[in-house]
Specification:
alpha/beta, 2 domains, 6-stranded mixed sheet, 15 strands, globular
Length: 325
């Protein structure tokens, strides 16, 4: 914990921080998460209509794009070698009547810090990156019962630094099997002034579950009446790279996000009740005795105003399965 505390304290206290961060390269550097989109990349043949659909959803659902920081975002805990290794058991929160044999193996020995807490809100999410073994764990509906951790769903990625940045098969907490640690933004990245990866985004209305794009492994979309131009989960889009972000009327944090949206883009990784991206849950910091960094980093703005001024009408959708090896 001392190493991580030192890093966070250095980042939050330094007026300028430009060093590398753990989220720069959790997965293989060839992963889509870290690969810049060429300015000349081909666009989806239906990009114009998909942008219109994106704008419809934004206008329909609260007129904004929120940044989740405490509920519906995952705290991520990096291990230091002092954690107690413990078994995380699965519980049947969805009343399916059965448990997944794969999770029993994946969660047999997880090093969870004593101070760890799951996110607020009904999803109860939590993630652990075991630095020593290069292993990433994710949990949904996590809870501590009589001192022992349980979770309803999630998964494990071994040899993460050699992984493409996607859970195997149907594992992982997002509807697409895309891991939180790949697409959440962090306080450290905002303080540095640079995000070096694609950003996960949740929409409300998406294409039916049987229509999804790489890098997604699956989808929870519902479109029973086949409404036209619904955006598939896994589809990627970016902010027009010719826009001068510095000239936009946006918050400082919003401009950091906008620049990453130009270089690495967004990937649709889930459904939600409103358009939203995720910042690493503030519990990642407060559980270690640090202050919640987001009020300062957001300049006192509420989370739903940080991205005000981002020209969503200037987004560009990429083709289905763009970048697939």
């Amino acid at each position: 914990m001392k190493k991580i505390l030192f890093l966070l304290t250095t980042v939050f206290c330094s007026p300028v921080f430009s060093g590398p961060l753990p989220t720069d390269d959790v997965f293989d550097l060839s992963s889509f998460w870290y690969t810049p989109i060429p300015t000349s990349a081909p666009l989806h043949p239906n990009s114009v209509n998909l942008v219109t659909e994106l704008l419809r959803q934004k206008a329909t659902y609260y007129g904004t794009v929120n940044i989740n920081t405490s509920s519906y975002s995952a705290p991520v805990y990096y291990t230091t070698g002092t954690e107690t290794v413990q078994k995380v058991t699965q519980w049947d929160c969805q009343k399916k009547g059965y448990l997944d044999a794969g999770l029993k193996t994946q969660w047999a020995a997880v090093p969870i810090p004593d101070y760890a807490v799951q996110s607020a809100g009904t999803d109860g999410e939590m993630a652990v990156y075991d630095v020593a073994t290069d292993t990433y764990y994710e949990f949904w509906q996590a809870r501590k019962v009589n001192g022992a951790w349980q979770a309803c769903w999630g998964g494990r990625i071994t040899a993460a630094s050699f992984n493409t940045g996607v859970f195997d098969s149907y594992y992982g907490t997002t509807a697409t099997s895309l891991p939180f640690i790949g697409g959440q933004i962090t306080a450290e990245e905002l303080q540095r002034g640079e995000i070096k990866h694609a950003i996960g985004i949740a929409l409300v209305d998406v294409a039916n579950f049987d229509v999804f794009s790489w890098p997604a492994n699956r989808s929870d979309g519902q479109n029973p009446t086949n409404v036209a131009n619904r955006i598939p989960e896994g589809l990627r889009f970016r902010l027009d790279p010719t826009i001068n972000v510095n000239a936009l009327s946006m918050s400082a944090a919003g401009k950091v996000i906008a620049k990453a949206a130009q270089i690495y883009g967004f990937v649709v990784w889930d459904r939600a009740g409103a358009l939203s991206i995720r910042a690493q849950n503030s519990a990642s910091y407060t559980a270690q005795g640090l202050p919640n960094p987001y009020p300062v980093l957001f300049g006192g703005l509420p989370t739903y105003q940080v991205l005000n001024g981002l020209p969503f009408n200037k987004m560009q959708f990429l083709p289905m399965d763009y970048g697939r090896p």
